Structures are given as structure tokens and as C-alpha cells.
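Notes taken during the Thursday session

The instructor put the following on the board and asked us to keep it in front of us for the whole hour. The protein is SH3 domain-binding glutamic acid-rich-like protein. We were told not to look anything up and to reason only from what is written here. First, the residues (108 in total):
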Amino acid sequence: MVIKVYVASSSGSVAVKKHQQAVVGFLEANRINFQEVDITMMEEQRLWMYRNIPRDKQPERGNPLPPQIFNEDHYCGDYEDFFQSKENNTVFTFLGLSSKPNVKAAES
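Then, after some discussion, the predicted C-alpha cells were revealed:
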């Protein structure tokens, strides 16, 4: 299973940048393997992301903003969903992961 975080590297929105950094930072800190997909560089990926976000999560006007989070092809949610799961301590369930990844202790 690969967690995919759809981001926009050239976003002009400070809020979008902060939200992207929060998601990526959390995944890195918790050593969760993920793939960052830059929708500003790959038109095909951007269109795929738009098509695979459920209708009830689509904005009334315009396109969904990054970050958008998927587990393989399964839609997990957007930043607000991620933030809620973090507040509720249910991020691994939100991501569709069974538990926190095993981290091997560094040998001395």
C-alpha cells in the first residue's frame, strides 16, 4: 500500500503550502511511506486526482485544493479530514493502515 499525497509545488496560497507541509511533515515524522505527487507538473495525475475525489467532497465551485490524500486508489480525504483524524488520534485508520509502522531501533 502506498499513501499518495497530491500537492501543488507552485501554489500561490500560503494556506495550501502550510497544509501540504503539515501532512508531509507528519508522515515523515511517523516514518509512514508515501509518495508526493505534484499536480502542477503532471497534468494526467491532476486530472486523475480530480476524477477520484468523491462527489460529496468536491467544492461547489472550482477544483479541489491540495493536499488530497489517497491510499493507492482509495480516497482518504483532504487536509480538513486529515486534521480531524490527527485531533482524534485516528490517522492510521484514516490512511487505511492497520497500525503505526514498526520502526527498528538503530544499532549502536
